[in-house]
Write a structure and sequence with these properties.
32% helix; alpha/beta; 2 domains; Rossmann fold; Hypothetical Protein, Haloacid Dehalogenase-like Hydrolase, Chain: A, domain 2; six-stranded mixed sheet
């Protein structure tokens, strides 16, 4: 029996326009009402969780920044943290200057964006979900002043050679992990993953691996698959995720999450 459902947000619950359908929201609520602990498990930071679920009461826990944090929202308490040290983050940021990369960072649960132009692009693409983003002129300088550790760094590819350049730079940072997407790379502390955070939350809640199900679409969901007994890949998922999945669902534009919950998870209860 499934007791915990870890579900990715972008590319999974959210469609290609970064919107969450009513069918998906209703299915997530139904899963929670059946007694399943539903956990948004996302690369997003806490303040940028999709606005469509922010006022819903179907989830208590959230795994954020690709596993850098696990939060108990009811108790307003951090259950798990794994951050990039300030000096490592600033060194990487400084090395990436002039490499054709747009930069963002998760700092103290907030989303920081470097530069007004990139901030505007984010608001256009993500709508209300970007309302809580904080625009700063230079993220590295902000960190140096505030001495903050970092949950996650994001580098978006602006130049055709941006991906190649950041890949070479990251090879010199053995204490960092990273996951490439089609338009950006997410960078976090070594050992950070959705899977490790999910396993830690399950341990806290006394839930076994075979009682965990997960739904995802991207490379950063691989570790979540390793930590789960039942694995669902979206129809739009990367190939390697589909190979590891127990079930392949319709795409994020066709309410694949709702399909999984209504046709597999709730039926099995």
């Amino acid at each position: 029996m499934i007791k915990l459902l870890a579900v990715d947000m972008d590319g999974t619950c959210l469609n290609s326009k970064s919107r969450m359908s009513e069918a998906t929201v209703e299915a997530l609520i139904s899963a929670a009402e059946s007694g399943i602990t539903v956990v948004p498990t996302t690369g997003r930071n806490l303040t940028c969780l999709p606005h469509r679920i922010k006022n819903e009461m179907f989830y208590r826990y959230a795994i954020t920044s690709n596993g850098a944090g696990v939060v108990d929202l009811r108790e307003n308490k951090r259950l798990f943290d794994l951050h990039i040290p300030c000096n490592t983050a600033t060194a990487l940021l400084d090395e990436c200057v002039g490499k054709g990369l747009a930069t963002a960072a998760h700092i103290n649960e907030d989303y920081y964006v470097q530069g007004k132009a990139f901030t505007l692009v984010g608001k256009i693409l993500y709508g209300k979900d970007a309302d809580y983003s904080i625009c700063v002129k230079n993220i590295s300088e902000h960190l140096k002043i505030n001495k903050s550790s970092v949950e996650e760094l994001q580098f978006y590819f602006v130049h055709p050679k941006s991906k190649e350049r950041i890949n070479r730079i990251l090879a010199n940072y053995p204490d960092l992990s990273y996951a490439f997407g089609s338009i950006y790379v997410e960078v976090f502390a070594k050992g950070t993953s959705k899977g490790i955070a999910l396993s830690e939350l399950a341990r806290i809640l006394g839930i076994e691996k075979n009682e965990i199900a997960c739904i995802g679409d991207g490379e950063n969901d691989m570790s979540m698959f390793d930590a789960s007994g039942t694995k669902f890949a979206m129809g739009n998922a990367v190939g390697i995720l589909k190979e590891k999945a127990d079930y392949i669902l319709p795409t994020n534009n066709d309410d694949g999450v709702a399909y999984a919950i209504n046709n597999y998870i709730l039926n099995n209860r």
